[in-house]
Amino acid sequence: MKTTGIHHVAIICSNYEKSKKFYTEVLGFSIINETFRAARNSYKLDLQVGDNCQIELFSFPNPPQRVSKPEACGLRHLAFEVDDIENTVSDLQAQGVEVEDIRLDEITGKRFTFFQDPDALPLEIYER
User: Per residue in 43-101, pLDDT tens?
Assistant: First the structure.
């Protein structure tokens, strides 16, 4: 198999309006398409992340809880690349998002930190 990149990451949220606001207004991702699927009583929101990646944000009635701590088995976290980590942290904090202290990746020498989406999904910002 030969891939050319990651096309999208799918996220199921517990509160569609709250998560939509977080991903569009707080993180600034633009909406590609928003669809209400009546048969599933579900929304699907396609968001543009950078030039070549998307997030598919889904809502479903009463989704089951999932362990989301970074050390749980499965997807550990979702990381976004930024040019200026201090500026990004300031922007997030100004919008009421709690952000961990900035750390240094011992292997790459790059700076990074973590925060959470409205469903406590661990998100990372990683300086380019």
Answer: 999 999 999 999 999 999 988 877 766 666 777 789 999 999 999 999 999 999 999 99
Q: Calculate the CA 65 to chain-centre distance.
A: 17
Q: What residues are paired with 81 via a beta bridge?
A: 126
Q: b or e along 105-116 (b: 16 or more beta carbons within 10 Å of the residue's beta carbon)?
A: eeeeeebbbbbb
Whether 37 and 93 share a structural domain = no
Element containing residue 94 per DSSP (H, E): helix 85-94
Query: In angstroms, how far is CA 80 from the centroid of its own chain?
Result: 8
The Cα 12–Cα 64 span in angstroms is 10
Q: Are residues 51 and 81 in the same domain?
A: no
**Whose CA is closest to 26, among 85, 93, 73?**
93
Q: What is the DSSP letter of 99?
A: B
Written as six digits, the tokens of 1 are 């198999």
